[in-house]
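Issue 218. Parser rejects a valid record. Input:
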Amino acid sequence: MSKTILKIFLISYLLCNLAYSQDVKRISLLVLDQIRDVKNADVITYAYNNQTLEGYYQIYAKADNDIISEGQFENGKRVGLHRSYSSITKSVNSEITYRDGIRNGTVKFFYLDGQLQSDGIYKNGLAEGLYREYSEKGALIKKIKFKGGLRLWQKEYYEDGKLLKLTLYKNGEVIKEKRYDENGRSLKPKATIE
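Output the parser choked on:
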């Protein structure tokens, strides 16, 4: 009963202040959304502008109230850098840059210990340029070259940095693949049975 009265009082107070400024309206809507969302899901803070997500948002884990995601919206679309966090270690899981709601810019993913797992670039929602993958020890284990979302080539490496495999692509399809042993010698292709 007392929680309901407190909510009604808080909502009434906030609604009375809506007329004073856009900032008060934003803050009020943030609080109203927190009250609504806290019951059944993670706590989400965000603001609306004419029924469209606008501005900075955060999502918190209900269990421990730690932030698990944050970013920015303009006209209901993701913009700028968006981060997600591990609910286990609290370290950054991913950093993805958006423009007009699509991936556009750097993309990074991390291991639970915060070590970089992979990074790349997107242009208008498609992978572009060099994408790199790293082992948990920090060694480069894979490089992929993209153009317009299609792979041009892929190189995989042993932990010591020596080339393990080279794959060439045309129109996104494998056209040639070559493997190497730990000493850099070319290996014969495996026979396939059809």
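Fixed in the parser; the record now loads. Residues 2-17 form the longest helix (16 residues).
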